[in-house]
């Protein structure tokens, strides 16, 4: 089968950073389904895994953790899918990725994709939808039944992939008042179209801007961009007994003492945790992706595609990685077909 892989971890400008390769077609066993890939999306995690390091792979490594395709075969223990089912999923970071014609994925972290979307539009959703859903409803404990309706949430990195779906879930499912950060006219327009009630510029004083909007504090903060840069601000604006979630690892020590007097919560979200550790509730990702598909098909939320980069090959994936590393992406980058 065709695939895009790496042997060495190189700058994306290097000719060998990503390579077109041929690999054996995998075989489904256990609870795995074999998916014929139709479309993929590219995420910051792809660039972080590919980032330069002094390591050489003994066999080409396939990246990619966002896919839509059709079930080609099922393992003997599969109960959730049958051959021919159109599915979407983010996959498992400990296994080969989706930048290939075929991929194995555990049925418990996949779901039937939205019937109203084509493969590329569906591929834009899984990783970010899982991350946003888990951040809001599992880590922050926001009610999916509307019990927290009207509470205020600050979404830092509103125009990115995760922010784009988090804004929608916070509004549509939870009924929160959403303030999203955005610094450019096009990103402000984007988050407003997705349902943000207001925007603030993350390059300026966020606390002062929130106060001008009538929010001395917010009940929730969702940090999808640079935890180190924003931690002090998050501690300043979080309400007493409020909750902060971040998906971006820190590189400097975080002063948790800033949260003590408020009895505020700080929690991480990493959407690969359930698959990586084979947690007892792995199937929750199947369930939440099923609900996201229902919300899309009902018109309650929409896909977050920002750009389509053409066919799945090394050249186009290198271009996508370079765009993500430049830090100016709005929504998701997708590719389709080999």
From TrEMBL:
Tagged with keyword Zinc: yes
Pfam families: ADH_N, ADH_zinc_N_2
InterPro entries linked to this entry: ADH-like_N, ADH_Zn_typ-1, Chloroplast_QOR, ER, GroES-like_sf, NAD(P)-bd_dom_sf, Quin_OxRdtase/zeta-crystal_CS
The Enoyl reductase (ER) domain, residue ranges: 15-335
Family named by the database record: Belongs to the zinc-containing alcohol dehydrogenase family. Quinone oxidoreductase subfamily.
The entry's keywords: Metal-binding, Oxidoreductase, Zinc
Protein name: Zinc-type alcohol dehydrogenase-like protein
